[in-house]
Design brief:
about 300 residues; mainly alpha; 2 domains; two-stranded parallel ribbon; 10 helices; 4 strands; about 45% helix; elongated
């Protein structure tokens, strides 16, 4: 074993008397200036101000040139340890945010209901001449009532009575079974054929331009339907729904919807379901305005309606 290396006289503690700028009193002054944010440093302190003192490096030397006090005050404390005033402020903030959320959840449906009622009432008054003329044509060309009430399935599976102008012969339901092999709808859940023999001559035109659906404005008034939403299905169609298709029943059925302005009956059933779920999950007020703007051209052209 060799002898221990002698202590270097230039690095021993005894070789350096206490520097007056790094004494305890000076350190207190340094801390005070640090808290006031008056000490800015952007590079490592290479040498002490005292020639006889060793090199000293402070943690603040590595901070960007930014007031230290602003960084200290920007660090929030949890309300639980911030004192009674912070806890009271936090309770008030939570109560306010919850109340605002609940108010929006309550006001939203009320506004939608008011819009549905106004559109339904005003729409019925506006289209009353068209309804009267269509009623005369239907009555003159085929026996039976003018209005046709059909049971549809609404929100959460509740049935309701949907109103339409009759566009088919009275024995349409009895003839349905004999026409199933002609069904052009993919998947077989819905029934659609382009030249349905059950449709009357007048009915072919009123279906093309959706005139037969104008009485559904009354469903807007009585609250069984809304302006935007998936079209209400028949009970026999819902019986063939899977879990994915049943999601269409999460919302109130609508007069117009996304797939009605995207191809109508030309779309497959799966495409209709996909568009309905897209509306349910992602629609905004702006999206509904766009659907409404596209509904008018879709009705005028009659594309995909049969």
């Amino acid at each position: 074993m060799g002898s221990a290396a002698p202590e270097c006289p230039r690095t021993s503690a005894a070789s350096y008397p206490e520097c007056p700028r790094t004494s305890a009193a000076s350190y207190s002054s340094f801390t005070a200036r640090l808290q006031r944010g008056k000490l800015w440093r952007s590079s490592v302190l290479k040498y002490s101000a005292c020639a006889d003192a060793p090199r000293r490096v402070f943690a603040t030397d590595f901070l960007p040139p930014k007031p230290i006090a602003s960084m200290i005050t920007a660090m929030p404390f949890p309300p639980a340890v911030g004192g009674p005033l912070d806890r009271a402020r936090a309770r008030f903030s939570r109560t306010w945010n919850l109340g605002k959320r609940d108010s929006l959840a309550l006001v939203g449906p009320l506004v939608r209901r008011a819009v549905d009622f106004a559109v339904g009432t005003g729409g019925l008054l506006a289209v009353s001449p068209v309804l009267a003329a269509t009623a005369l044509l239907v009555k003159a060309t085929s026996p039976g009532p003018v209005l046709f009430g059909q049971e549809r399935i609404g929100q959460y599976g509740h049935p309701f009575r949907l109103l339409k102008i009759r566009s088919m012969y009275l024995d349409a339901d009895a003839r349905l079974a004999s026409l199933q092999h002609l069904n052009e709808s993919e998947g077989g859940v819905t029934f659609k054929i382009r030249r349905d023999p059950r449709i009357t001559p007048v009915g072919r035109y009123i279906r093309k331009f959706s005139i037969d659906e104008l009485p559904q404005l009354w469903n807007l008034v009585n609250g069984t339907m809304t302006l935007f939403g998936p079209r209400p299905p028949l009970a026999r169609e819902v019986d063939r729904y899977g879990p994915r298709e049943r999601r269409r029943l999460e919302v109130k059925p609508g007069i117009t919807c996304l797939w009605q302005v995207s191809g109508r009956s030309d779309l497959s059933f799966e495409q209709q379901v996909a568009l309905d779920l897209e509306y349910i999950d992602t629609s905004t007020t702006a999206d509904e305005v766009r659907i409404l703007a596209k509904t008018i051209p879709a009705v005028i052209t009659g594309k995909g309606a049969y």
